[in-house]
Write a structure and sequence with these properties.
The protein has 11 helices and 8 strands. It is of the alpha/beta class. The N and C termini lie far apart (48 Å). Bound molecules: 3-methyl-2-oxobutanoic acid.
């Protein structure tokens, strides 16, 4: 497994970063509570990390890579091997953002000790600064165990995709009073246990507002209204690469359309023998 955390500029296909900024730290993210909103996006590959990094505070190597990169039906089959390989690539492609890596399903739930072993592997193999795990009250002892041992933890409450089978789907959470109270208790529990930030996914605005007001750490929303301390989206969703996205996604670009148009032109040029042209052809020197 790779232990190289910096990019090899001799072999990289991209230009070296022109003016590297200092990498943000977990305490700096924590201090942003109530301040300028935190900007977070998912990244799974080195080139995407390079492109996103200058604008972002946090790059999340989400286990959503199961669906986005591997075409899996959910995040459940994602492995530690996958997270470590993609995590290391994103660390190599970034110099400014805090890189947070999702702990995959099955790698942390059994015990705080099991969670520590998985988190230690992720951090040692990728060079990332923090991990993210899903769950609330039940995961609070694990969040405390990791945080007290030098592993910064980002929590994730509300719609927790690894629990899709228990939740029965990907719909918004917190509609009933009981669910509202449970999600609030979850957020409080992991914040009190030492989480440095919490992702709140797919929850109603009043609940997002209450959680954000009540917990000490920044709350980063995804489908959780503008009331949070920051926002995160799956990058491929906001770039318009997929036909179907959740209601909370705003597509900022039509990348699928642009790629299709470019490939159509390429195919036409190949078939008409207009590509490759003289500029792309090695000719004998005179
Ligand atoms: O896996 C992921 O990409 C996530 C975000 C959607 C928050 O957890």
């Amino acid at each position: 497994m790779s232990t190289t955390f910096t990019i090899d500029t001799a072999t990289s296909r991209a230009n070296p970063t022109p003016a590297p900024m200092k990498r943000l730290t977990v305490p700096a993210i924590r201090k942003r509570k109530g301040g300028e909103p935190l900007v977070m996006l998912t990244a799974y590959t080195v080139r995407m990390a390079q492109l996103l990094d200058p604008q972002c505070d946090i790059l999340l190597v989400g286990d959503s890579l199961g669906q986005v990169i591997y075409g899996l039906p959910s995040t459940l089959p994602v492995t530690l091997d996958m997270m470590c390989a993609h995590g290391a690539a994103v660390v190599r492609g970034s110099y400014h953002s805090v890189v947070v890596i999702d702990m995959p399903f099955g790698s942390y739930e059994a015990s705080p000790q099991a969670a520590f072993a998985s988190a230690a592997r992720i951090m040692a193999e990728t060079g990332a600064a923090a991990v993210k795990l899903e769950g609330g009250v039940a995961m609070a002892p694990t969040v405390a165990f990791l945080s007290e041992r030098g592993v910064p933890v980002m929590g994730h409450v509300g719609l927790t995709p690894q629990a899709v089978n228990a939740l029965g789907g990907y719909g918004a959470r917190g509609r009933s009073e009981a669910e509202h109270a449970k999600i609030l208790a979850d957020a409080r529990a992991i914040a009190d246990a030492g989480a440095f930030a919490i992702v709140a996914e797919g929850i109603l605005e009043p609940l997002a507002r209450t959680i954000t007001a009540e917990v000490a750490c920044p709350v980063i929303g995804i489908g959780a209204s503008a009331q949070c301390d920051g926002q995160v989206l799956v990058t491929e969703d906001m770039l318009g690469l997929f036909e179907r996205t959740p209601r909370f996604v705003k597509t900022f670009e039509d990348m699928a359309g642009r790629i299709s148009a470019a490939v159509e032109t390429y195919a036409r040029d190949v078939r008409s023998r207009t590509f490759p042209g003289v500029d792309q052809t090695y000719l004998p020197k005179d």
